[in-house]
Amino acid sequence: MGETLNGLHQLQTFEIKLAAIRRTQLAKQRRVEVCRSRYEKIEQELEGQRRQNLERKARLDALGLDVAAREETVNKHRQALAKARTNKEYAAILSAMNTEKADNTKIENTMLEMMEEIQAQKDALAEVEAEKAKRFEEVSSAEEQLQAFDAESKPKRSELESARDEGALRIAPSTLLTFNRAAMRHEGEAMVPIQKVHPKRDGFVCSGCNMSIALEVVNVLQTRDEIQFCGACGRILFLEARG
Ligand SMILES: [Zn+2]
Predict the structure, then answer these.
(1) pLDDT tens digits for 162-180?
(2) Which fold has domain 3-173?
(3) Contact partners, residue 164, CB within 8 Å, separation at least 6
(4) Domain ranges of the chain
């Protein structure tokens, strides 16, 4: 390899390490996002359940008032019963009173069912509260891990960045631009060696994507310090020194 390709190859070692750091960082950032969205989901669920609970309690209160009003009516019927003048009148009041009593029993049964539902929901709510606390822990832990990674990788990162920037000074700007583009597309792996398919025959492939490479490209690389791309994946090609 000539000076340019050699310089680029060195840059690549820094780029690959930097890309690995970025990948880890990105994975940790995603983990934080996933945890946060899970936490938000459970918060919404909790809010919905609380609202439902309040609605049930309000309905229960309304039914309680209804029962009280009906009991009042039953009392009035009872007083009227004592003053009834005829059998017919007595029978009519008694029938009305019994209907009212029967209705009240129905409502009271409904109220009992509702109280059971409210109790069951209270238990369910406690479970969701516990899950919310757990999810909160997950968010904190994911955030801590991200922060710890950032702090821990910062010196290494700056070191790699300075080494790369220093190396980049020795490369022509247009070449560097080409290299950076390829590095960005392939997570730092801007360059790959050409591989010989068969030891005794001429036939070459890009070791990055396995597509075949024309013999003339190989010839250029053997004689000149020039950038040659793989036509398929766009990586910069080089020839490995023969051992
Ligand atoms: Zn390729």
Answers:
(1) 999 999 999 999 999 999 9
(2) Helix Hairpins (1.10.287)
(3) 11, 14, 15, 18
(4) 3-173, 190-238
